[in-house]
């Protein structure tokens, strides 16, 4: 079983954004993948649609990842905390999906749909409409942490130009977006070398 941990945020200090991205996509990913239960990570930046400017997608072996001494003692975001806004941390049930299904190629994209602030019932109704035109989207129910959205839809695409993103208005609380990768897909095995 795989668990998907998604961090979404904006960054409000353009003069420090390049340094923040270098830190997050380098030392921060390496630090987290050395902790128990963290398996993979890839970071993304908003290319089109609605949603937060950044998204980090982690896969985990267990929700216990957030209860380990290693995680609690060395979180490491302190230098950047005042510049990170609209931050959310949600944990999703990835079921039996292999970790690699969430990897996005360097020239690919990640199509996402989130339902922040909606009830599960309203999100299910909106998801049913969106799923008709996006049959390959992987729908993950939220199971922990902040629970900003009752579920999230993820669809890795091989090419940024091949967006199956439908710009129809699904309602003010549906955030449909396409993100481009700003880091490679990193695995715990890569970091242990």
Number of helices: 4
- What's the CATH C level? Alpha Beta
Distance separating the two termini: 25 Å
Judging from the principal axes of the Cα atoms, what is the shape? Answer: globular
Proportion of helical residues: 10-25%
The CATH topology: Alpha-Beta Plaits
| Strand order within the widest beta sheet | 1-3-2-8-5-7-6-4
By helix and strand content, what is the structural category?
A: alpha+beta
Strand content: 35-45%
Radius of gyration: 16 Å
- Can you name the CATH architecture? 2-Layer Sandwich
Give me the count of strands: 9
Mean pLDDT: 91
The run of helices and strands is EHEEHEEHEEEEH
Q: Total domains, how many?
A: 1
Low-confidence stretches: none
Task: Describe, in plain words, how this protein is organized in 3D.
The protein has 193 residues and is an alpha+beta fold. The chain has one domain (3-191): Alpha-Beta Plaits. The chain contains four helices and nine strands. The chain has helices spanning 14-33, 69-73, 120-133, 188-191; strands at residues 3-11, 38-49, 54-60, 84-93, 109-114, 138-145, 151-157, 175-181, 186-187. Strands 1-3-2-8-5-7-6-4 form an eight-stranded antiparallel barrel. A hairpin with a 5-residue loop joins strand 6 (138-145) and strand 7 (151-157). The protein is globular.
Fold topology:
Blueprint: E1 3-11, H1 14-33, E2 38-49, E3 54-60, H2 69-73, E4 84-93, E5 109-114, H3 120-133, E6 138-145, E7 151-157, E8 175-181, E9 186-187, H4 188-191
Antiparallel strand pairs: 1-3, 1-4, 2-3, 2-8, 2-9, 4-6, 5-7, 5-8, 6-7
